[in-house]
Write a structure and sequence with these properties.
Elements lengths: L14 H14 L5 H12 L5 H20 L14 E5 L7 H12 L4 E2 L10 E5 L4 H15 L4
Antiparallel strand pairs: 1-3, 2-3
Helix pairs in contact: 3-5
Length: 152
């Protein structure tokens, strides 16, 4: 159902752990909006047949991103295991994450989030989304490849 950004989820587990989690949760977040709750219920109770096709598309795009970035000079990444973001390591370029993100935007027309936005350990990295169609993703990889060059 691809309800990106709706900030809706649930947890199942042993009662003792869920009790502790509920205590922490009550101090950290507020309730999900009513439309998100209704949408989540509809997704859980609605047709499920198309989900496998959607999962395969995300897996294909993750592989395209991982293989494409890994072939570019100065860039590397560990394949994503969760969401549709690649946390690209650009430390070999010698640029900090803000400069690297600016260079990618200005020269390759690729918008990223500098890794420093996620804390000090994100320095030298950029977050790149692969939540797009295959053609746009291939074009993105191509523009970055032309900008940085590729590994031989």
């Amino acid at each position: 159902y691809a309800m990106t950004g709706w900030r809706l989820g649930y947890v199942a587990g042993p009662r003792a752990i869920i009790s502790k989690l509920a205590t922490i949760h009550s101090h950290a977040v507020t309730c999900a909006t009513s439309f998100a709750q209704a949408g989540g219920a509809a997704a859980l109770n609605g047709p499920q047949e198309f989900i496998e096709e959607m999962v395969q598309a995300w897996d294909r795009r993750r592989t395209l991103m991982s293989d494409g970035i890994s072939a570019i000079n100065g860039l590397s990444l560990a394949p994503a295991e969760g969401a549709f973001y690649a946390f690209v390591d650009g430390r070999e370029t010698g640029l900090d994450s803000t400069a690297l993100g600016g260079k990618m935007l200005e020269e390759a027309h690729v918008a990223v989030v500098p890794g420093i936005a996620f804390g000090e350990s994100g320095e030298g990295h950029v977050r790149l989304s692969f939540a797009t169609d295959d053609a746009t993703l291939a074009s993105t990889i191509d523009r970055l490849s032309k900008m940085f060059g590729t590994r031989s």
